[in-house]
Design a protein that fits this description.
The protein is globular, with a radius of gyration of 19 Å. With about 325 residues, the chain is of the alpha+beta class. It has a 7-stranded mixed sheet with strand order 9-11-8-12-10-13-14. Strands 1-2-7-5-6 form a 5-stranded mixed sheet, covered by helices on one side. A two-stranded antiparallel sheet has the order 3-4. The chain folds into 2 domains: about 120 residues, 60s Ribosomal Protein L30, Chain: A (2-Layer Sandwich); about 150 residues, Phosphoribosyl-aminoimidazole Synthetase, Chain A, domain 2 (Alpha-Beta Complex). α4 packs across α7. The chain is built from 8 helices and 14 strands.
């Protein structure tokens, strides 16, 4: 059923990642069909051919709650998220636009903290904020502050979401889900030593970009959404190994405690990749220089769908996450 039929209304699950968000995007594309000369408009960034180079262009909006969390804040995640969406396409980000919508009465001290975080990420990644806008609205019209970004980058080779091939290995650049676990733990006052994995992946991706068939950062919707999207677009089957799942014990514990699908837990500083078998060892070796937790978590086969190979040898389907997942996660 369409998410945009005349009798429906917008629900939280449409913005939380997973199946509802995926179907919502498909419905939008039925209305907004015109893409001009732009390609990959359903991937993490759209691509425009500039001759011997390609321009990658992405945009995102951030309404996270809480604004400040272990490992970051709304400013850091806005910058990292935008840089990462360009990076996983194989492009090098060259500029960011930044727009604030601020509620009247918002703390100027907190705003300065957020801006300092933005500047820190910008300098460390060498990706400048080059244009922007600020609006202030009446108290109660929004919840404190919202940030909208856009990012552009250049590449000679684009890594498409549809590039997975049978025989590829699925690699995770590190343990996943820690951002989602931290946000939920702070909302529910659950004590944990975890901190958000929020960071840029630019250097890691660039170190292995030539070796990858697919690269995606598992943000909203988590690993489950990413792998289902890759499997559908690439027309392949993906099988994960239960013994190699990239989740720390605390992440699993929070998932079980709150009844949230583990495969829907988002990360904001990790990526997953589909890698030809002949390049796997080289890829892992390079990635482990950045994060020793980088590893193979599964493989690509002929067929369709995403499955978990259990410890007793059975196959359990991993479907696109559904329902109200984790709203306001980024």
């Amino acid at each position: 059923m369409s998410t945009l039929n005349k009798n429906s209304s917008i629900s939280l699950e449409l913005g939380s990642g997973g199946k509802a968000s995926w179907e919502f995007f498909k419905d939008l594309r039925k209305i907004m069909k015109y893409t001009g000369k732009w390609k990959n408009t359903g991937d993490d960034a759209a691509i425009y051919n500039l001759g011997n180079q390609k321009l990658a262009f992405t945009t995102d909006a951030f309404i996270i709650d809480p604004l400040f969390f272990k490992g970051g804040d709304i400013g850091k995640i806005a910058m990292c998220g935008t840089i990462n969406d360009v990076s996983v396409m194989g492009a090098v980000p060259i500029g960011i636009s930044l727009s604030f919508v601020i509620e009247e009465g918002f703390s100027s001290k907190d705003l300065k903290k957020i801006i300092r975080s933005i500047d820190r990420v910008s300098r460390e990644a060498k990706v400048p904020v080059v244009t922007g806008d600020t609006k202030v609205t009446e108290k109660g019209k929004i919840d404190r502050i919202e940030i909208t970004t856009a990012g552009v980058g250049l590449a000679k080779r684009i890594i498409e979401n549809s590039g997975a091939k049978p025989g590829d290995k699925i690699i995770s650049s590190g343990n996943l889900g820690e951002h989602g676990a931290v946000i939920l733990s702070e909302r529910f006052n659950y004590k944990t030593k975890l901190k958000s994995d929020c960071q840029t992946v630019l250097k890691e991706v660039q170190s292995v970009a030539k070796l990858l068939n697919v690269c995606k950062d598992p943000t909203r919707g988590g690993l489950g959404e990413n792998l289902n999207e890759i499997a559908e677009k690439s027309k392949v089957k993906i099988v994960l190994d239960e013994k190699k799942l990239p989740f720390k014990k605390d992440v699993v514990a929070i998932s079980e405690l709150l009844g949230v699908n583990l495969f829907a837990f988002p990360s904001e500083g990790r990526f997953i990749a589909s890698v030809p078998e002949k390049f796997v060892d080289k890829t892992i070796k390079k990635l482990q220089k950045f994060n020793h937790e980088a590893k193979i978590i599964g493989e690509v086969e002929n067929g369709k769908g995403v499955f978990l190979k259990t410890s007793i040898g059975g196959l359990r389907p991993i479907e696109m996450p559904q329902g109200k997942l984790i709203p306001r996660i980024c």
